[in-house]
Amino acid sequence: MQPYNYITYKPDYYSFASSSGCEYDYYFYDFSSSFYLYPDLAPKVFGFNLELTFKPAGLDKVPLDKRIAATVTDIVKTFLLKKENVVVYVCDNSDNREKARFHKFYHWFKEYNDGSIVQLRGVIRAGNTNILNALLIHKDNPQLNDFIEAFEIITGIFTKPDDDELENILNDDGEW
Fold first, then answer.
1. Less Cβ around it within 10 Å: N or C end of the chain?
2. Exposure string (b/e) for 56-66, b if CB count within 10 Å is 16 or more?
3. pLDDT (0 to 100) of residue 92
4. Is 176 domain-assigned?
């Protein structure tokens, strides 16, 4: 599956249009504050966001489009190619659709990852709120083990490695 052509505005800001005419902005932002206990790692930690910026009139629902997934994963892989930075994905939970976002994103990377990106998934429990997240890092990042250790400590005991079933994180009944 070929990604859409995208425009790079800065090393951390991209835009593309889908075949349905929807337009998207995709950007990375400073996420160093989450790794503040690790001053050597913190400057290399970024979050990212995908925003639908335009939907054609008359299009009630954005159609399913696998090329969006291919584009997003291609941009992340390109961003991590320098083998210095990591990307943390935190699922927006403002509309109670965080599980769907987490599931979709996990499967995008599972399907389109060429093996160069390691994805660690985690859940941070804050009271009654589950904050679903993932760390993406190039497998050849010289600080791979340091980032993984820091991520596991930051997310606590709820971090699950890639070979666990996603349902263990998303469908638990609060008992583990």
1. C
2. eeeeeeeeeee
3. 67
4. no
| 3-state per-residue secondary structure call for 120-172 | EEEEEEECCEEEEEEEEEECCCCCHHHHHHHHHHHHHHHCECCCCCHHHHHCC
Per-residue pLDDT of 46-105, as tens digits, reads 999 999 999 999 888 888 899 999 999 999 999 998 889 999 988 766 677 777 777 778
Tell the residue number behind the tokens 């820091």, with chain if given.
150
Q: Give per-residue pLDDT as tens, 131-170.
A: 778 899 999 999 999 999 999 888 874 444 444 434 454 4
Buried b (16+ CB within 10 A) or exposed e, 2-33: ebbebeeeeebebbbebeeebebbbbbeebbe
| Strand, coil or helix: 3 | coil
- Asked if the structure places residue 147 within a domain, the reply is yes
176/168 Cα distance (integer angstroms): 9
Range of the domain at 90: 6-170
User: What is the residue whose two structure tokens read 């052509």?
Assistant: 5
From 19, 11, 144, select the one nearest 70 (Cα to Cα).
19
Within 10 angstroms of residue 116's Cβ, the number of other Cβ atoms is 13
Amino acid letter for position 150: A
The total number of structural domains in the chain stands at 1
Name the band, by pLDDT with cuts 50, 70 and 90, for residue 129.
confident
Q: How far apart are CA 62 and CA 83, in angstroms?
A: 34
